[in-house]
Amino acid sequence: MSEGEIVDVREVPSAGSADKQSSHSSLNSSDSCEKPLFQENLEKPEDLQTDKDKAKMSRKANKETDALELMEGHYLVGNQGIYKVQEFLGEGGFGKVAKCTKLGSPEMYAIKIIANVQEGKEEFESMKLIQVLDPDENHLMKMYECFSFQNVICLVYEILEETLEDFLIKNECKATPLTYVRAIAQQMFQALKALKSIGVVHCDIKLDNIMFADKKSLKFKLIDFGLAVETKELPTGTEIQVTRFRAPEVILGLPLDESVDMWALGIVLACVYFGNYPYPSRTEYETIRAMVLCTPEEYTKSTGKELRKKNHRILEVNPQRRITPSQALEHDFITMKHLAGKSKAAYAAGCEGVMGKTPPSEAQVNPSLQSSLPPPSPPPTPSSALPFYTPEIRSV
């Protein structure tokens, strides 16, 4: 077998193998903030894009190539070994993601097969930017190698579990306990701090680009750096981010920097905590209108009291005043300094277990965790103080 060749060891691939493939659904942003994002409300992602979105993402349109005929049982010959396709984890406009084993090794890998060569090269170049960072310490997806065959690009990544988007859908978009939101926040703040330190902007932070690396220990990783760029290459007017996670300065065509990633992460944390999006996102106008008005009529009773608070920390409209990753890591929500009192000892111990400061107990992290998270001990104070709200609000 020569490098870059697909080899099928079976005589005839099963016609039913395509049924086993799964594609990521996209959460539907509500017309108003009143409609929760349950599974029955899912729609095609293209229905939620503005004209600018469609133009920006047009280069990700499906391309009919030989690569899309890859099936289970095929072999891919890479630079560091031969990989056997076990199953497909998903597919999209870029191509497919295959779960593979390397011959002679029990390790599993996720190979992203990108149909458009230029896109594949761009993602590889983006991954090269972050190779100076420790992927485990900084919660970034690990890439092992890149190779090509039949005019497509294959990127070999570590195998992860499921995305936050899939988790919310399986959990029927129920609100997630604050203890676990804290774990997600802390790890993603560290990821963004690391990216900021080398002058890189992810540009596409959203629910399906944050994955569980290990559900039992609540470890997460930031994935998909296909649109990542150096901060200095973000000129005014750059069209980045899908609408529902788009920072206001992007919508308004203002100068951009790494703070756009913090805004998008704030939307992610709000989605995980509340179970729905804080702003409608059918159009850019609708989104920016909600950001500016923030009146009682704009939001439901269940979420409005938090979203109407002044001076958001992460969801701060002014990027110059928006909290940075380093500042967020020092926030009481993450450090839990406010939980030092004896009256909060039990709750603090549970939080520290989840955050990795002490070995988590069976009660803190359920080893059989699949699609839902176990409830933490009841918080001793109101649950309105996520780190993207003002310090004057009582924190949990």
TrEMBL record:
<dbReference type="GO" id="GO:0004674">
    <property type="term" value="F:protein serine/threonine kinase activity"/>
</dbReference>
<dbReference type="InterPro" id="IPR011009">
    <property type="entry name" value="Kinase-like_dom_sf"/>
</dbReference>
<keyword id="KW-0067">ATP-binding</keyword>
<dbReference type="GO" id="GO:0005524">
    <property type="term" value="F:ATP binding"/>
</dbReference>
<keyword id="KW-0547">Nucleotide-binding</keyword>
<dbReference type="InterPro" id="IPR050494">
    <property type="entry name" value="Ser_Thr_dual-spec_kinase"/>
</dbReference>
<keyword id="KW-0418">Kinase</keyword>
<comment type="similarity">
    <text>Belongs to the protein kinase superfamily.</text>
</comment>
<keyword id="KW-0723">Serine/threonine-protein kinase</keyword>
<feature type="domain" description="Protein kinase">
    <location>
        <begin position="83"/>
        <end position="334"/>
    </location>
</feature>
<keyword id="KW-0808">Transferase</keyword>
<feature type="region of interest" description="Disordered">
    <location>
        <begin position="356"/>
        <end position="396"/>
    </location>
</feature>
<feature type="compositionally biased region" description="Pro residues">
    <location>
        <begin position="373"/>
        <end position="382"/>
    </location>
</feature>
<dbReference type="InterPro" id="IPR017441">
    <property type="entry name" value="Protein_kinase_ATP_BS"/>
</dbReference>
<feature type="binding site">
    <location>
        <position position="112"/>
    </location>
    <ligand>
        <name>ATP</name>
    </ligand>
</feature>
<dbReference type="InterPro" id="IPR000719">
    <property type="entry name" value="Prot_kinase_dom"/>
</dbReference>
<feature type="region of interest" description="Disordered">
    <location>
        <begin position="1"/>
        <end position="62"/>
    </location>
</feature>
<dbReference type="Pfam" id="PF00069">
    <property type="entry name" value="Pkinase"/>
</dbReference>
<protein>
    <recommendedName>
        <fullName>Protein kinase domain-containing protein</fullName>
    </recommendedName>
</protein>
<dbReference type="InterPro" id="IPR008271">
    <property type="entry name" value="Ser/Thr_kinase_AS"/>
</dbReference>
<feature type="compositionally biased region" description="Basic and acidic residues">
    <location>
        <begin position="41"/>
        <end position="62"/>
    </location>
</feature>
